[in-house]
């Protein structure tokens, strides 16, 4: 077996290996190649700096890296690590990283990041053996928004590409795929809620599927959260929110209060390149 760059590997070969690797996973992934092609493009997957384990010409394991600058670091974000079932237990992830890390460092990457489901103890041990450490926890939610009254508010759509002109939302609170650097390349819309001529909250949502990538209260006052969730419900009554930093306890309590269920939790792990 040999570890090689995925730069010359067809997309269909990679995504087929992905689907086999993640069959019967902790969460169910849709069998939609176009969805993952778009998602990986949004995250700036660099296939030359993504690597696979090949048994002869068969791809049996892989690591996909999105490469982008975030907060003064050149990040290699591990979007997916997969090994097909019959090749597990052979330390393939560790072997791929032995090849990948020197290449990433040579390219100028200063920090590697990934997310892993907290119940996936086998993967966590493998990442720790490579040098990753847990830096924070994330909570994920989904469900139908439960709100009865509809308080008045003004909803303004703003161009997501201009979102950075308003630096009030700290992007470091969000995970790699939920930061503006990723979302601005995808099908997301950004909205502001204005009350009494003041912008009091913002959110970014994929209106096609109800996925909320960001939501933040900027001005806490009576009825702020009710107006925020009323606006969200009018766009999509059933929503999904991934990766709320578990230290944001007040936000988490509000998300639960409006009917969303904590479905799964993740760790963010990182490796500083020295």
Automatic annotation (TrEMBL):
<feature type="domain" description="N-acetyltransferase">
    <location>
        <begin position="1"/>
        <end position="154"/>
    </location>
</feature>
<dbReference type="GO" id="GO:0016746">
    <property type="term" value="F:acyltransferase activity"/>
</dbReference>
<dbReference type="Pfam" id="PF00583">
    <property type="entry name" value="Acetyltransf_1"/>
</dbReference>
<dbReference type="InterPro" id="IPR016181">
    <property type="entry name" value="Acyl_CoA_acyltransferase"/>
</dbReference>
<keyword id="KW-0012">Acyltransferase</keyword>
<protein>
    <submittedName>
        <fullName>GNAT family N-acetyltransferase</fullName>
        <ecNumber>2.3.1.-</ecNumber>
    </submittedName>
</protein>
<dbReference type="InterPro" id="IPR000182">
    <property type="entry name" value="GNAT_dom"/>
</dbReference>
<keyword id="KW-0808">Transferase</keyword>
């Amino acid at each position: 077996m040999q570890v090689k760059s995925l730069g010359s590997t067809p997309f269909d070969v990679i995504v087929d290996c992905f689907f086999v690797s993640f069959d019967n996973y902790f969460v169910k992934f849709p069998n939609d190649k176009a969805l993952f092609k778009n998602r990986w493009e949004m995250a700036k997957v660099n296939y030359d700096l993504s690597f696979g384990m090949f048994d002869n010409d068969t791809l049996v394991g892989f690591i996909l890296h999105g490469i982008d600058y975030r907060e003064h670091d050149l990040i290699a974000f591990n979007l997916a690590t997969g090994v097909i079932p019959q090749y597990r237990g052979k330390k393939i992830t560790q072997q791929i990283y032995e090849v990948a890390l020197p290449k990433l460092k040579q390219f100028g990457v200063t920090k590697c990041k990934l997310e892993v489901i907290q119940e996936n103890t086998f993967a966590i041990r493998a990442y720790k053996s490579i040098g990753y450490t847990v830096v924070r926890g994330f909570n994920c939610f989904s469900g139908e928004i439960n709100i009865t009254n509809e308080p008045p508010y003004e909803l303004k759509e703003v161009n997501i590409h201009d979102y950075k002109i308003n630096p009030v939302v700290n992007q470091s609170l969000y995970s790699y795929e939920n930061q503006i650097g990723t979302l601005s390349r995808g099908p997301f819309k950004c909205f502001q809620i204005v009350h009494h001529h003041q912008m009091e909250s913002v959110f970014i949502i994929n209106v096609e599927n109800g996925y909320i990538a960001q939501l933040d209260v900027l001005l806490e006052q009576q009825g702020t959260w009710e107006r925020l969730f009323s606006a969200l419900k009018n766009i999509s009554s059933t929503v999904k929110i991934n990766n709320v930093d578990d230290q944001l306890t007040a936000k988490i309590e509000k998300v639960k209060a409006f009917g969303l269920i904590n479905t799964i939790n993740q760790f963010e792990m990182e490796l500083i390149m020295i």
